[in-house]
């Protein structure tokens, strides 16, 4: 290293070649990736305006539509993680002074309320106890006393493992003339999710859960009704990076106008993860998640674990469980990680230190993994 | 594919296995990646809160400091492309009603002004003709008539190939008591850039230029003076995703509080790209960029190309050149891409259709590549 060129005593040789442990990822995401996705990641780099890359973007758009079960023309991938997808949906649809309704039954509903507030909305909350789904009657009551531009709700609360039924609430929102915004980060490609049939106007998700692509991207989709609202905005979206009036010209415009440099390697991997989903078929994939979940559930209950969520509303891919009496969560979780290379998640927010979140997502959702986890727990406990 | 599960006639078999052409990337970015970076991309996935990943984040932070030549504690990587890094710097430092000065001598200065305006700033512009650096005297004049919170300028305008000298303007900004914000997307790791010595308070860059990592991330750094301004904000940053008061707890906080899921595979690749930079050494890398540029320059001039920018202000990694008289740019550029697999860039903004931007960035910056390009041009022209 040349003298003086670096600002402090610095020895680059201290950085060893990268070497990660062969973890089995059974936490709340990221999930394990299929070998084909690893290979796709290291596909030879091409330019973001190369005709070959434009074709790949078109294919990925179709794959976003297929997996969201929608014909929405404005379906694409935000070049940033799921929380940026959340922000994209909210800040593009909200203008300062708008009323919005946010359903909050975990960490991520709270995050939506925070973002809506920052965008200048008057936020009406429908708050539900963590671990239960939002009650449609509670939404109905709030809707009677306000006139919201949108109603937002989380389909699969990653902090609690609750599956939120959407159809009844979606119908209410439509009857009210509001837009229906859904967080599908953890449900996407793991349980049924019908954007068109359920009248969802704006939806975002992540890539590192049941899709089993690398983290860092957020597929989104907007209905024609939502696009009309976008087009009728009186104020500029405060974020240039997330402004759909600009981004859509890159992903969907006839001229494919340069907006930012797409995360090309990530898009390669995403495309391969989508191919795997479509080869398996959505129904078969949903069934695999349900069956693997039941296998895990039976084994955990035998060991004395108990579920936070009532059976009717449990997510198959996110199992929030209390540990058997007298078992400390952190030492056990560390032992699993360091002695067995198995990652499970701790509690988030109100549940930190109180429960585990065991993920069965995408390529991680496998009976062999369940057996490994249960066997390890039996050996330790 | 199960009947009814997909919303339209859809045949997944139409998506072939991914296969890109072996392009040589001599455009304005992304650049070619070293084989070690491809390998690092497909490193086995681990969780974003895994102790191994936390260690990797710490190493990457040190590498960000080393390459920015700074000791700034708040140095990290935004989980989104360079334009999101731009937005991070501006929206965190600006509050509604603040005065700012934006220097604009190309597309990216204009983008900064747009973002500052959306954040509620009163924007004073120092506009320079495209292809020339901003004149310190013009900055001085504007500074005499306003009291800006920050002055922002592009170090290497990717749209014009101009190298902007920073020291004199930086001194003026410091004397005025304003913060000095610098866009280093194209200069970073290709020409000298001294954050501490030059009094830069906030800086952002991209990964896909002279660093030759995959696109999609934005290394940033903030001086202690900038952090004081962040800490003294009276209003919330409108963007939750880019709010440094939250992000810094994930990258730098003692508890490493979860904020979003980091783009793990990208960080793996970034770390390897940094190792390559540090093994080469910054001075040697800058010299390689300069020498390769001179080799290209001589060859292009022999062929009748002429430079937009005066020699004293030319960037080695971004050669903005007019084509010889009578040569149409688009057909020639397409021929290079399709017959030789060589990508060069067209003009951007005012220069669209008028000139080429030939990049020599990072791993792409190689005498063999220059010889390939010059030989191909000789054969075609």
Describe the model.
The structure is a homodimer of 381-residue chains. Chain A is of the alpha/beta class. Chain A folds into 2 domains: 24-32 and 281-380, Aspartate Aminotransferase, domain 1 (Alpha-Beta Complex); 35-278, 3-Layer(aba) Sandwich (Aspartate Aminotransferase, domain 2). Chain A is built from 12 helices and 14 strands. The first copy, chain A, has helices spanning 35-41, 51-68, 82-93, 107-118, 136-144, 167-176, 224-231, 244-251, 264-280, 282-302, 329-340, 367-380, and strands at 24-26, 74-78, 99-104, 122-127, 150-154, 156-157, 162-163, 179-183, 202-204, 218-222, 306-307, 318-322, 342-346, 356-359. Chain A has a 7-stranded mixed β-sheet, with helices on both faces. Chain A has a 5-stranded mixed β-sheet with strand order 1-13-14-12-11, covered by helices on one side. In chain A, strands 6-7 form a two-stranded antiparallel ribbon. In chain A, helix 10 packs parallel to helix 12. The longest helix of chain A has 21 residues, at 282-302. Residues 1-9 of chain A have low confidence and may be disordered. The interface between A and B is large, with 94 and 94 residues.
Radius of gyration of chain A: 22 Å
Q: In which order are the strands of the major sheet of chain A placed? A: 2-10-9-8-5-3-4
Distance between the termini of chain A: 51 Å
pLDDT < 50 stretches of chain A = 1-9
Topology, pairings included?
2 copies of one chain form a homodimer.
Chain A (H helix, E strand, L loop, with lengths): L23 E3 L8 H7 L9 H18 L5 E5 L3 H12 L5 E6 L2 H12 L3 E6 L8 H9 L5 E5 L1 E2 L4 E2 L3 H10 L2 E5 L18 E3 L13 E5 L1 H8 L12 H8 L12 H17 L1 H21 L3 E2 L10 E5 L6 H12 L1 E5 L9 E4 L7 H14 L1
Parallel strand pairs in A: 1-13, 3-4, 3-5, 5-8, 8-9
Antiparallel strand pairs in A: 2-10, 6-7, 9-10, 11-12, 12-14, 13-14
Helix pairs in contact in A: 1-9, 2-9, 5-6, 10-12, 11-12
């Amino acid at each position: 290293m040349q003298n003086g060129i670096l600002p402090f005593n610095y020895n680059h040789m201290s950085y060893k070649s990268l070497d990660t442990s062969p973890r089995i990822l059974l936490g709340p995401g990221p999930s394990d990736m299929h070998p084909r996705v690893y290979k796709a990641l290291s596909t030879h780099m091409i330019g973001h305006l190369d005709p070959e890359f434009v074709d790949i973007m078109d294919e990925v758009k179709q794959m976003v539509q297929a997996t969201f079960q929608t014909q929405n023309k404005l379906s694409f991938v935000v070049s940033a993680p799921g929380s940026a997808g959340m922000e994209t949906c909210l800040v593009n649809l909200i203008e300062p002074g708008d009323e919005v309704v946010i359903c909050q039954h975990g960490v991520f509903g709270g995050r939506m309320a925070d973002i809506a507030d920052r965008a200048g909305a008057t936020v009406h909350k429908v708050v539900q106890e963590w671990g239960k789904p939002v009650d449609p009657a509670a939404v109905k009551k709030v809707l009677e006393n306000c006139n919201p531009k949108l109603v937002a709700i989380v389909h699969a609360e990653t902090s609690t493992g609750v599956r939120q039924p959407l159809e009844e609430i979606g119908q209410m929102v439509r009857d009210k003339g509001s837009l229906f915004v859904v967080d599908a980060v953890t449900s996407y490609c793991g349980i049924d999710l019908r954007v068109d049939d359920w009248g969802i106007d704006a939806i975002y998700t992540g890539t590192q859960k049941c899709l089993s692509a690398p983290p860092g991207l957020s597929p989104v989709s907007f209905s024609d009704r939502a696009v009309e609202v976008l087009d009728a905005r009186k104020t500029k979206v405060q974020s240039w990076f997330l402004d759909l009036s600009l981004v859509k010209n890159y992903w969907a415009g006839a001229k494919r106008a340069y907006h930012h440099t797409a995360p090309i390697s990530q898009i390669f991997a995403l495309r391969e993860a989508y191919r795997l989903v479509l080869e398996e078929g959505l129904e078969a994939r949903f069934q695999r998640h349900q069956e693997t979940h039941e296998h895990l559930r039976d084994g955990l209950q035998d060991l004395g674990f108990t579920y936070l969520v009532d059976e009717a509303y449990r997510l198959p891919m996110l199992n929030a469980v209390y540990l058997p009496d007298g078992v400390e969560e952190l030492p056990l979780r560390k032992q699993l990680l360091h002695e067995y290379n198995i990652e499970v998640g701790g509690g988030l927010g109100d549940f930190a230190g109180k429960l585990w979140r065991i993920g069965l997502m995408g390529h991680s959702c496998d009976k062999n993994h369940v057996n490994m986890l249960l066997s390890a727990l039996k050996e330790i406990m």
